[in-house]
Design a protein that fits this description.
By secondary structure, this protein is α+β, with helices and mostly antiparallel strands. It contains 14 helices and nine strands. Strands 1, 2, 3, 4, 5, 6, 7, 8 and 9 form a nine-stranded antiparallel β-sheet that branches. The N terminus is likely disordered.
Length: 342
């Protein structure tokens, strides 16, 4: 039985959640955020119990590999074993080639065994629906419950390249605003990597490859002032992949689906949504001093830099003049502030 600490007794956060410089969308609605957390050490049932204890809803288990918490007060959660060959039951094709046919009972037993065995090697993932940013502390209570239940994060083994992904709803849809965020991010990515102590297993994995230097220099040039089509084309030319620390393919697929559909990208994995797909952070769920505020506040600093047009321009020019030292004087200070929670 999962030990659920009463809500009023839970204080999981080591630091507060900071305010975004733009709290609302261009339509005037509070901005929302989707959170995806990878972990090991707990079952899908345990994850579902933690979600239901905080947000309500009921469990729907499609199979041993994919659970849903349906009709919670914020929408539906997906809890899954992150292994496509199992979720898609591709293993049945391989068994068929060997002449092995399973009845329903045998298949159910095999899938339970596969779920248990694979869970030791591949992550269990909790995919939360988009929630208002102001509700992040409640989602962090779910994180704290799972931490107490024994969830394991990135640092427990080289094998565990587990990450945490944030899908932050955009505030504005114009190319100038999106370019400012992108410029701020490429200038801050080394700071965020250092401050977040991004694990070696994740840095060596294929999932968060850095932006090419040619792309960084192109978008930082003061004369680079594209319209939306030009911004998307430039991004696709240099980044025909979702495996970037900041993945803009879902956003651009939402804005201009035909343009993205024509590009050589992983179309089956790109889900259009009006959000920045921030893929860099570790999942340190087994660390009682870590919370969702840590990666979220790092993103807040990206947006704060994007909002400070003069500083953004100055740092971009400094990077172009001295690429090896562009982060120099302020990187150590910002990294220290990120670690200390500002």
């Amino acid at each position: 039985m999962l030990d659920i600490t009463p809500r009023e007794a839970v204080n999981p956060m080591s630091q507060p959640f900071h305010d975004l410089p733009w709290a609302h969308t261009h339509a005037g609605e509070p901005r929302r955020i989707g959170v995806e957390i990878e972990m090991a050490g707990v079952t899908l049932e345990t994850m579902a119990d933690a979600v239901i204890a905080e947000f309500g809803g009921h469990l729907q288990a499609d199979d041993p590999f994919v659970f849903h918490v349906c009709d919670s007060e914020v929408g539906d959660f997906v809890l899954e074993l992150d292994a496509r060959v199992l979720k898609d039951r591709a293993y049945r094709e391989h068994l068929g080639r060997l002449g092995i046919e399973l009845d329903d009972a045998d298949q159910a037993a095999l899938e339970r065994w596969l779920a248990d065995a694979a869970g030791r090697l591949v992550p269990h993932e909790m995919v939360a629906p988009p929630i208002p940013v102001a509700m992040l502390p409640r989602l962090d209570r779910v994180r704290a419950t799972l931490q107490r239940a024994g969830a394991l994060g990135t640092e427990r083994a080289l094998l565990y390249a587990f990450g945490l992904q944030l899908n932050i709803e955009i505030a504005q849809r114009d190319p100038e605003s999106l370019l400012a965020i992108l410029r701020a991010f490429v200038l801050m990515v080394e700071v965020l990597t250092t401050a977040g102590a991004i694990d070696l297993a994740r840095r060596l994995s294929p999932y968060i490859r850095p932006f090419p230097g040619s792309f960084v220099r192109t978008i930082l040039e003061p004369g680079f002032r594209p319209d939306m089509g030009g911004l998307i084309d430039t991004y696709l030319e240099h980044n025909p992949t979702r495996n970037r620390p900041l993945d803009l393919l879902p956003l651009f697929a939402e804005i201009d689906p035909e343009r993205v559909a024509a590009a050589p990208v992983e179309h089956e994995l790109v889900k259009p949504r009006p959000a920045f797909h921030y893929r860099l952070p570790n999942c340190e769920i087994d660390n009682p001093d870590w919370s969702l505020a840590t990666p979220f506040n790092g993103w807040v600093e990206v947006e704060r830099l994007a909002a400070d047009h003069e500083r953004l321009r100055h740092l971009g020019e400094e990077y172009l003049e001295r690429p090896a030292q562009a982060l120099g004087r302020w990187a150590d200070d910002w990294a220290r502030r990120l670690r200390d929670g500002f």
